[in-house]
Prior knowledge:
- The protein is an alpha/beta fold.
- Helix content is 39%, strand content 16%.
Amino acid sequence: MTDAVIDEIDGRMIRIGDHWLADFASCNYLGFDLDREILASVPEYLERWGTHPSWSRLLGSPVLYEQIEERLAELLGAEDSLILPTITLIHGSVIPVLARDGSVFIDSRAHKTIYDASRLAAANGATVTRFRHSDPDDLERLLAQDGSTNRLICMDGVNSMTGNAPDLRAFARIAREHDALLYLDDAHGFGVIGERGENEPCPYGLSGNSIVRHFDESYDHIVLVSGFSKSYSSLAAFIACSSNLRRILKTAAPPYLYSGPCPVASLATVLAGMDVNAERGDAIRADLWRKTEQVLACLNQIGARTPNVSGFPIVEVPLARHEDIDAVGRFLFENGIYVTLAAYPLVPKDEVGVRIQVTAANTQAEIDALVDVLGRLATQFELQPIGQEKRDGQEELAA
Ligand SMILES: Cc1ncc(COP(=O)(O)O)c(C=O)c1O
């Protein structure tokens, strides 16, 4: 279940050797990787632009970038945006710039790429402190003790393991009150969750315009980072920020000058994905929500705990005995289900388990198969029972 070579795909079915499995490890939440309209849009862009611009952005950016940035800022309701190839590159280059020699407060469950970037910030003179996961009180306590004049708070939006979002209103309020900048990585929320509205077809909200809009917050003291490589199935990432910060980052963030650009096919699929999102996105999200609900209902029925309280399409199922993980992986593989295994020491022992990611491209038959296999898994292995909830923020802050 790790480092697999996928020989072939057929929709969300994948073939590894002679074994076909239903894929529940993909982050292509909206199924844009397989959308006929998006696929058909690519050749025309390749005819016009070739396969790859190969200028660094400071040398020259195909107008496609500008088109995406404008549409993106409008979609997000942000003042401006800047595209770079990956979130990893953005974190590594932008966090040290924003941190300067001030204080960085990092959620203890922030994504590894944020941690790595905070190390670079520390090497440049910043002081890095962790706060308890999703715990605004702990953050506020640390900020109250901090004497620096430049403060940066780094955390995930929709968490890549629990599938839950932080209490953004509380964190935004704290950032403003302490004149800190809240730097959010919503890799998994963008495209899935969005602004709330009376006519929303599902609780994910409308338009998939990410966590800030989902919580009806403004971008005051907030920088939003996310990417197109999950919901939009394209290699590109963005930072939503003020026009002034965008201007500064063009020279201060090294990848704008020193890194290669996004492939033309990816810029094309972002633009086509934006069209599809506007036309059909809310219906796709309603379908994704319904499928995710079926998985959550199954876990509820078999009495298995999941940290997911949001209904978002990332569903982790922790095991009662972490030693079972290899056998559980084999069982799922043999029964045609492909998921992400979260093994110790990548996660603490009491969180070892499997992560299921639902996408709109999973067929009903695949969801039914997953539900059936989870039911049988629960008869052969001990899953953590409902009622053993661990509150967000309860984990150790050990190094
Ligand atoms: C929360 C989060 N941040 C960042 C990344 C890295 O994104 P990229 O591949 O664009 O560098 C991931 C990738 O899985 C992620 O889940």
